[in-house]
Amino acid sequence: MAKQTHHPWLILAQLFVLITIAAAKVPAVIVFGDSSVDAGNNNQISTVLKSNFAPYGRDFYGGRATGRFSNGKIPPDFISEAFGLRPFVPAYLDPAYGISDFATGVCFASAGTGYDNATSDVLSVIPLWKEVEYYKDYQRKLRAHLGTKKANQILSQALYLLSMGTNDFLENYYTMPNRRSQYTVDQFQSFLIGVAGNLVKELYSLGARKISVGGLPPMGCLPLERTTNYMGGEGCVESYNVVAESFNGKLSGLVETLNKELPGIRVVLSNPYYILQQIVQKPSSYGFEVASVACCASGMFEMGYMCDRYNPFTCSDADKYVFWDAFHPTQKTNRIVSDYVVKHVLREFL
After folding, report:
1. Burial class of 207 by CB neighbour count within 10 A (0 to 12, 13 to 18, 19+)
2. Cα gap 306→296, rounded to integer Å
3. Is 58:73 a contact under the CB 8 Å cutoff?
4. CB 302 within 8 A of CB 296
5. Inter-residue contact 91 to 30 (CB < 8 Å)
6. How far apart are CA 204 and CA 193, in angstroms?
7. Distance CA 71, CA 49 (A)
8. CATH number for the 26-273 domain, one of 1.10.3470, 2.60.40, 3.40.50, 3.30.450?
9. Where are the alpha helices (DSSP H) in 228-330?
10. Could you give the residue numbers annotated as active site?
């Protein structure tokens, strides 16, 4: 049998067609959440929780510190690229972008926020309800820009990424006394699940049909938690990880319920817990050298203004580190986790 050859231009043409189809299936990526997905909205509000300065963004396009809490790209950027859209998702409040830019992707996320409104109060950031108000404003602008029919088509076919919850526990429940006096940790989880369910239902009522709900990472393995875990020999705080796993289990149940209750919706759980846990436990298997402390860190409280260009501990090669600062992964980790989520969860939308 003659050997079949594939001309390079033919392969490129086929790839172009595949990408076009993917883009048609998901014409936009729309993001709600916290610092894990904030593309720079916090730059425009009065809060101490910002990252629009060096060394943040040093590996992003042009070495720009955009307000992303990483040395480079964050998960929505990689996910947008995987769907054949632009290789980053701009922040809604960024004055450098307008509605024509937001037609293929927009981020409403705010670092430091959570499902609980009390969480956003801790560092004076954008509460979840306000993110939804911005989304409604975006809808109005999109319809004015593209016409109602085209805009509604984009809004119904778009992929909605929701990623929050870690701050509800680490900034709020375990740090501030109010919620602990009101709820056991199990009750607090159920309270947050109720908010998450209401969020999905509201987005559904506004036209959303493809929704990814993000699970919690192994939050006991964040460098901040490890460094302050003196009794545990600076290992992961397992009690926090147990809470994260439990919460993700409840989210899974919520996703199942929502898919049954809401006609025409498809909700999936994008759970980063196990892939991130594997990376932390066996960093060398993924090409990392350090998982216990962050690049911009001695491991303590380096985040935001405490991670700056004058920090003598900032590493020279972030690709060797799982974490960029005391709370957030490096661009390399974000890429690995995003690729995993796309291949194992979001692929049904491709």
Report:
1. middle
2. 9
3. no
4. yes
5. no
6. 16
7. 16
8. 3.40.50
9. 238-261, 273-281
10. 35, 325, 328
Domain boundaries, the chain: 26-273
Asked if 291 contacts 235 with a C-beta cutoff of 8 angstroms, the reply is no
Give per-residue burial for 277-286: e unless 16+ CB within 10 Å, then b.
bebbeebeee
- Structure confidence by residue, pLDDT tens digits, 36-60: 999 999 999 999 999 998 899 999 9
Q: What is the pTM of this model?
A: 0.91
SS3 285: helix
- The helix/strand/coil state of 75 is helix
- CA within 13 Å, CB half, 183: 17
Summarised one tens digit per residue, pLDDT across range 108-166 is 999 999 999 999 999 999 999 999 999 999 999 999 999 999 999 999 999 999 999 99
Q: What is the Cα–Cα distance from 178 to 275, expressed in whole angstroms?
A: 33
Query: Helix, strand or coil for residue 290?
Result: strand
Tokens of 133: 């108000």
Please spell the DSSP secondary structure of 80-145, one letter per residue.
Answer: HHHTTS-SS--BTT-TT--HHHHTTEEE---TT--SSHHHHHHTT---HHHHHHHHHHHHHHHHHH
